[in-house]
Amino acid sequence: MTGMLAGIRVLDLTTVLMGPFATQILGDLGADVVRIEGVGADVFRDLPPSRHPGMAGFQLNLHRNKRSVALDLKQPAAITALLRLVETADVFVHNMRPKAIGRLGLDYASLKKRNLAIVYCGAYGFSREGPYGEKAAYDDAIQAASGLAGLFAEADGAPRYVPSVICDKVAGMTVAYAILAALLHRERGGGGQEIEVPMFEANVAFNLIEHLGPFAFEPPLGDFGWKRAMSKNRKPYRTADGYACLLPYSDENWRDFFGFIGQAELATDTRFATYEGRTQNVDALYAVVERAALRHTTAEWMEFCDRVSIPAMPVMNPKRAWDDPHLRATGFLATADHPTEGRYKTIGSPARFLSTPAELRRHAPRQGEHTAEILAEAGMSEADIDVLIRSGAARSAT
Asked: What pLDDT score was predicted for residue 157?
């Protein structure tokens, strides 16, 4: 085992994306992530196309650096086996609704009797403390509930979803840092504890940071929403041959930009001469950029902007990310050979640690690939493991 979290065992009962993304982060950092899968499989395992059943493309990066144990938690023998694993674990994380996890006898009050030092994380849709506590939650629902979809209505009149499961991933990162903080607290002598990470609250907090502004005061000193972010003209601009982000920001950036487009007088225009003025007149300012963008090719804009340090980037089609020269040079995106699934594209860890780098130590497992191995590590005999598998309470990949 390598990495900063080497020696930390995480029991991962999560499914779909939020929880698995959190445990991917922990696994990349060196934790021994043991994925506890129901025998019916996570829906993400079977999304077509795939080369083999249960090994969809979603799996290959999302579940790297993990091992898989398949248990039918509807059977008491499987619960008993899981409780043996709890005794060996540092972290237990799940995304079942509170009543469902309680019916299985896997709530925090029950598990801490087995392992007082356990860090227990429930990743829920909504906090148990509020009236939404038992509501079902998926990314689209949280985009709507958290105000993210509604921000588009503020900008252009109609709510819509971001074309990414962004709320799952925001909540997943929140789960990861919450678990890391609890482990540090335990290391300093504070003991184990229960953590609740609700998607709704995580994303409301995420969305409100920049938009409160003057609205944060009581009574408000201005309207809700950061005008620059919600401007209908804040968008990638069409150039002579494509699209690009052109983002002059500082006073100097804007002087250089206005000079380049032959409108140097705008640098002294009271609407645009100061940050405050530009903020108050952001729609008019961005309209100037939009008209000017068409005069030059994307390459010409990049040459100018890079020369004077104006933030600017071409708009990339994400399926072409593996062709990006920067990502190729850093090795962030690459390919690897899975022992059963063959060649596949890999995504690196965005945090780089010089002394203890994150690395691909294990390819994504087949369902139940490590069932016998991990139950044996928990002290179960070969005969007992065989009984579990033959009874259907556990499954082992062949």
From this structure: 86
